Amino acid sequence: MGLPHSAPPVGDELSAPFWAAIEERRIVLPRCSACGRWQWYPDEAGCDCPGATLRWEEVAPTGTVYTATRVERAFLPGGQADVPFTVAFIELDGVEGMRLVANLADGVGIGDRVRADFVDHDGHPHLLFVAEPF
Fold first, then answer.
1. Which of 67, 107, 73, 113 is nearest to 87 (CA)?
2. With the CA atoms of 113, 116, 119 and 124 taken in that order, what torsion angle do they form, in degrees rounded to the nearest 10?
3. Three-class HEC string of 85-99
């Protein structure tokens, strides 16, 4: 199984709390301080609620695979060593209304229960969802 080579973005203050948590092997996501709606990806417009802010909250590292696709072709020059890898939408437990895009371990499919694993890759923890033990 390959993993795409990617480093956390530098200078992106909006997503910095997410990447800082990944470095600590945790998952945090932004939530509206007024209505409680989860928002991914965070953007400069913020929440839809007047006067609200985005609060970053730790979420469960478990969930269900909503959909997935196996990437067989490199998108960027020099990316041939990365493929194949699988990208999935994960419905995290307790996080209604949004799905997290992440990599998926081989042998895991749509509808499977998964848990977050953090694989050292390119000098950083890389979020990878693996089959949840029964």
1. 67
2. 150
3. EEEEEEEECCCCCCC
Region of residue 116 (phi > 0: left; psi between -120 and 50: alpha; otherwise: beta)? beta
Cβ-based neighbours of 80, under 8 Å, separated by 6 or more: 74
Name 131's bridge partners.
114
In CATH, the architecture of 60-134 is Beta Barrel (2.40)
Residue type, 32: C
Tens of pLDDT, residue by residue over 81-95, are 888 999 999 999 999
pTM of the model: 0.89
| pLDDT tens for each residue of 108-129 | 999 999 999 999 988 889 999 9
Phi, psi of 68 (to 5 degrees): -155, 155
- Round to whole Å and give the CA distance between 3 and 86: 8
